[in-house]
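cache lookup: miss for this entity combination. No prior model stored, computing from scratch. Input as submitted by user K.M.:
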Amino acid sequence: MAYSELIKSFSRIRDYMREFYVYGFKSRTEYTKKSARSYDDERRRLESWLGDYMQFRQTGDGKQVFLSIDSRVSHHNPFYKAWKTKSFTDGDITLHFILMDILYTPEIRLSVPQIMEGIDGYLASFEEPKVFDESTVRKKLKEYVSEGILETEKQGRTILYSRAQDRELCDPVILDFFSEVSPLGVVGSYLHDKTREHEEYFAFKHHYITGAMDSEILYTLFQAMQEKRTVSIRTVNRRWERESENELIPLRIMISVQSGRQYVMAYNPRFDRISSYRTDNIVSVRTGEVSGRYDELREALSKMQKHLWGVSTQGSSGQFLEHISFTVTYGPDEEHIHQRLEREKRCGTVVKLGPDRSRFSADVYDASELIPWIRTFICRITAFECSNGKLEKRFLDDIREMYALYGLEGGDAQ
Amino acid sequence: MIFSELYSAYYNAVAGVLKEAADHPVTARELRRIAEREAFGESSMRIEQALMDEEWQLLRKDGTTPIRHVPTMPLTILQRRWLKAVMLDPRIQLFTDDIPDDPEVEPLFWPEDVCVFDRYLDGDPYEDAEYIRHFRMILEAVRTKEPLEIMLLNRKKRTVRMTIVPEYLEYSEKDDKFRLIGKGNRFGNVINLGRIVACRKYDGTVTTEREETVKDRHREVELELWDRRNALERALLHFAHFEKEAEKIETDHYRLRIRYDKDDETEMVIRILSFGPMVKVVSPDSFAELIKERLIRQKRCGL
């Protein structure tokens, strides 16, 4: 098939976007094991949509393509553009603008034969007028009713179609902000396209934009949660290049604003436990039956969250809960360190042990999730304990390894 | 459906063309200009060809159209449901008192369906009337670029008076705070909205000389990374919001270059430390020294 800038399905381009943006160090040959043409087409598409952010580097292994985006500078998530590339037929677009013009105000109510007649009138002025059969038009009308842009009403045995009421759109500034910070912000971007261009008033710091690529997955999960339905998800383990399928009851979406990762917390009946699944590892979601256990399981998750630092519901020690604590020291003008503990803790408690010392402690399902955070206090940690002995040892070994990494391993610190 | 041609750049471009054609015959040049504005790098050729060759029977060869009205489309259910979900966000009160309701649809998600689990706990008070008043006044001043006089509680809990010409508002999802970025403030051009105690229009003149741009403040740090315990993926995702470059040196060994704002250097130091021995700063030396200094102090703590 000839190359087209537009695509039918989002899944393949999603993988390439992720590779080019998150990784960006693979050469063409690493992508082309399966299909060289597919790589060339997807790269060309991304260059067309996101050319301003695309960069190239020539190495011994060949040309490497990567996307480099400073999200603090761009006011709108550039990945939203990719969601505006759905392919369509010549008939789809022709019919769309004609139907919207025939039914240009909600007061006009027409039957299918009346609409068919109207369509012919529009096309008559072309040299070779298209001919739409009635079933195509009916299908399109039905699709637009389900999207909510058309409505139906019965008059006797005849169905009449009309345009849905136009609604006043909110201040575009609201869309500027929430399309960047709210889940499924791409929908805000669709709304934004309806507004006039205006000056930008917002910028975003620590702004992760990768979640946009998973919008379709998130949308389906939200749909299932609203209807309390089970889902069947196919996930990929990228390291081992393996895919697996799980039947789940999705309970809550967990979002990290410190890594941009999104997870669904879900009950897995096969293991009889609630676990997390990263949305960027979910390849597809299918909704299933309504579950009678949704409310009970969601309540159970809420109770569990008191002992969750991140999303892991099981540590490596096999203990139900792992205890972890550490103490930091600070100077008389460093009270902000104590404040940091208070501000950044997600569970657990902070106790002031004296004017220059504070201790954090928590009982969590997986203490390893706290390690990166605890390392941010390096230079002032005076004690560290964990009921998971292996984890405690590894933390202390890591610190020693860091001393070695910077040539500080020998003798006492000066 | 979330991935639908109804929201596509091509439909938007064609709507733009038909809007012009409803007013006057559209020229090929005009058509290309609209397509370039609304769609992508390679779109204009395709859109022009499809319209001019009557593959899409919406524009006649003379640039006129049988479409009689400026094209519009009502909001889809998806859009209405997303808006309804947004209206449940406490931050909406910053923008309006008049929160519209759409009783015919359910929100796309409820607040309790989503949990941001690593946001700092001392975020701005979005439901505080005084904070809302300051936010709106500042947003209006950002629109008009009119100077403001602001009274602020500094870190030492002293009240400081300052004047500033507002440029834009910056929001951090991690800190859950808004900051006003402006010009002409001798105490610095970043003001945390949460620290403001009073705010009003300033009638005087605020001098704004040439000040540092974002680019002036860019610094670069180069890291080496050993891909143990999934460190590569964790680091690339964690630093994803910066301009960055990753390069493979050998199996499980990578080089990362990250551009950051010099004002955020301390934050960068602790973010790099969080990766433990899997990441080492290799340049600049001054940055590596900051890490070393912390490790030396840590060694003195006896661990």
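stored under new cache key. Residues 166 and 182 of chain B are 4 Å apart (CA to CA).
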